[in-house]
Amino acid sequence: MSVWKVSGGKKLFGDIRIQGSKNAVLPIMAAAIITGCETELLNCPQLSDVEAAMAILRHLGCKAERDGDTVWIDSRGMNRTDIPHDLMREMRSSVIFLGAILARAHEAALSYPGGCELGARPIDLHLEALRSLGAEISEQGGSLYCRDKGLKGARINLSFPSVGATENAMLAACGAEGETVITNAAKEPEIIDLQDFLRKLGAEITGAGSSTITISGFVPQEKIGHRVMTDRIVSATALCCTASAGGCVTLKGVVPAYFETVTSVLESMGCEIERRSTSVKITSDGKLHAPRPIVTRPYPGFPTDAQPLLMAASLKAAGTTVFTENIFENRYRHVPELLRFGADISVVGRVAVVTGVNELIAAPVTAADLRGGAALITAALGARGLTTVYDTGHVVRGYDDFDKMLLSLGADISYDPETLASVV
Known about the structure:
The protein has about 425 residues and is of the alpha/beta class. It is about 30% helix and about 25% strand.
């Protein structure tokens, strides 16, 4: 059990550089095995999910080493096609290795993935996409067994623009003969970053960022390098923390357009936002008012990952904020914990209504998932007193030295990764 302690009431000031993207680096690490080559990845965040991906790579027979924010992968020695349950359960994104393994070895065996319990996140779309390319997939005892007699290019129409299914289809298609066209593809920036990496790897691929992606060939490369994009959800987190606590913070090395839906909402709440080509500056006096209704949608809509963070920032906003969660049915697991601060929140189905209160009071709370845990810390920054956040490792799955980032801005926060404590 890890413990975060936050003394609220300290305004945040300063400049920060945002870490590399968790949601971009994981599929890129999986893509590194499509062909036997050496890969150098720069700007890799130090996260437990990244460590889990490195463990999977080593199990498959690859070499994976880290030096600071650089990860080296040598996939030339890959000699296995299975991923055991204990490695799969560490992160939801582990299923992304399925398409990459099939592209390389044409057979794979793995169990269903783990990760945050945000509700039903079936991998049916992933499997349908791979079957379209010629994969034969069977399920037995909670494990998936996949093989193919040579993947063939196909037209894959996703019934929902799933990020993971789009990525798995892209990876598998790199090992397919002929042209593959993915329609209703996810448009997230992380898909564009994966396309950039696959091109360096030798793929002929176009269309990422639009609803149609085409993969038409693959010429293997022996050695490549790539810099991982910055994390737009961590950027949104820093902005929401500042909105909650008050202060003035500049995010450097970012692409403002990638999280514009968040900055525009914060601006409507009374924050001053200054956008430049590679930076965003937010100024907040901590006295906010409720924004327009927030509805989560696939990119370029409002991101589901930012919903808990904005909710935490809106707890003291004058008026009523209405949230509608369209992606995950269990995305409100942070709500009972936010209520401990004295927040006024009611939930009916996929709709949460937040009525702003004058003050939040520190409380012992428990993180139920990654973004929900970050939301509790966000709320604690704007609360009176000392908040203790109990966490079984959720937050460090997505945030690299989150405590140090906030400390550099003047927050009063500490993190103990191995505290033995009873959860209140």
